[in-house]
Amino acid sequence: MNPFEERSLQLNRRAFLSKTALGLGSAALGSLLGLRCFRANDKGIITESGQGIEGVLKALHHPAKAKRIIYLFQSGGPSQLELFDYKPLLQKRRGEDLPESVRQGQRLTGMTSGQDSFPLVGSQFGFQQHGQSGAMISDLLPYTAKIADELCIVKSMYTEAINHDPAITFFQTGSQQPGRPSIGSWLSYGLGSDNENLPAFTVLLSRGTGRPNGQPLYSRLWGNGFLHSLHQGVQFRAAKDPVLYLNDPAGLGRSGRRKMLDKLEALNSMHHEETQDPEIQSRIAQYEMAYRMQTSVPDVMSVEDEPDYIYQMYGPDAMTPGTYAANCLLARRLAEKGVRFIQLYHMGWDQHENLPTAIAKQAKDVDQASAALVMDLKQRGMLDDTLIIWGGEFGRTNYSQGTLTDTNYGRDHHPRCFTMWMAGGGIKPGIVYGDTDDFGYNITENPVHVHDFQATMLHLLGIDHEQLTYKYQGRRFRLTDVEGHVVKDLLA
C-alpha cells in the first residue's frame, strides 16, 4: 500500500468528523490553552502574533485588588512559638508533661510518638508589642517588627498534613497527592502574563543557614500537573546560566537560531494539523518564549544598576547571588517586569533539634530582606497591587522533641495551628487574626484552613476559586478541590 492510499484510509468518517470539529474550533484554541500568541495565517498555519500570553478567563469574576503575588515560602515549618505566637504559660510550666486534655489524642509523627513524655517548652527569646495592632513579634525579627502596621498576621492557620512532602504539596497545589498544578500554574492558565518576554510563573530557591542540609525541595512543586506545559514554573538560578538550556550552543548565532526556530515551527504546525494535539502549540510557544528570554533574563538578573541604598535596605546578603536577600531583590525586579506569580522557597526551617541556635540563624536570613521587600514595593507604589505572603507548610509543637535542657530543645511538626503573614494586594493591614489556646496547641478563634487561604488569595486576584477549573479525566479540578471559602475579615 502506498502512502497516499494509507492516508486516504485514515480519513474515515470518524476521523473526518473529529478533525473537522477541531478545525472549526481552532479559533478557540488560544482560549482553551490560555494563549494569545498564535494566529492562523492565510494558509491556515498557526504562527506567533507577538502579543504575549492571555489566560483562559476572558474577564475577571470581580474587581481585583492584586495584580501579582510574591510568595515567600519558608520550607520546613517555622516555629510560630519562637516568632509570632507568644505563650508565657509555656515558660511557667516548662518541663511539665503536655496534658492529654490539650493534645486530645492528636496523632504525632514517628519522630516523637515513641517519647515517654512531652515536656512543655516556651521560647527563650523575648517578645514585644509592635504597631497600632499591638502585634506580639519576637526579638528575632526586629525588621519585621518595624513593619507591623503593614502586616496581616494570621495565627490560626491549620492543615491536615503532618509530614513535609504532603504538607508542602498541599499548600502549593491544593492536594496532598502529587500531580496537581501548582498555584503559579493555575494563575498562568487563568490570567496569563503581562510580559510576553518573561514567563508568568518564576521560581527562586535559597538555602538557609539554620539547617543548611535539611529538608530538600523538588521541582514538581512548581510543575504544571495536567495543565499544558506552557504553565509550568521556570526556575531562575544563581549561576552563570540563570535558566537552564536557554543559551544557544557554541557556534550558533541569533540569526541561525531564528531560522532554526522558524523551520521547527513550520514542522510542528504541520504535525499539529495532522494530530490536533494542543501540546504542540504549547511547545511552539515555549520555543518562542525561550528565544525572547535570551535578552529579557540577563536584563532582569543584572542588579548592578541598583543604587547603594537598595542594597543597604535588603542587607549585606543581597550582594551574594542565591541568598534569600538577593532573591527578594530579584523578586521585586520580576514584579516590575509584569511577572504574575513569583515563588521564593527558603529551606532550613525543619528544626527538630538545636532549635534556639538554628532558628536565630534562619530568622536572620529572612528578617531584613522580607521587610525590605514590603517597604521597597511601597515606596514604588506597587504594594497596593502586589500581594506578599510569608509562611511555611505547618508549625511546631509546644513540647520538646528529644531531651529538654536548660539551653537546648527541638520541636516536631504541628499541623493544628501555625502563623503566616500577608501584606499589600488588598489585605487588611495592621491586624492580628485568629488565636490559639494558652498552650499554643489548638485554635480557639477564627480558624483558617489551607483551602481558605487559597480561596482568599484567588479572590484578591479577581478570581472566584470555584469557577477557575480544568476538566481532566472526566472531572473538573480546581486549586481548592471541593472546599475553601474566602476569609472576608482579611480583606481591606
Care to describe what's here?
By secondary structure, the chain is an alpha/beta fold. The chain has one domain (68-150, 160-246, 281-420, 451-490). Helices cover 33% and strands 16% of the residues. It contains 15 helices and 19 strands. Helix 10 packs antiparallel against helix 11 (278-301) and helix 13 (324-336) runs parallel beside helix 14. The longest helix is centred in the last third of the chain and has 25 residues, at 355-379. The radius of gyration is 25 Å and the shape is globular. The relative contact order is 0.20. Mean pLDDT is 86; it is low at 1-11 and 14-51.
Keywords:
492 residues, 16% strand, globular, 19 strands, TAT_signal, disordered N terminus, 15 helices, single chain, alpha/beta
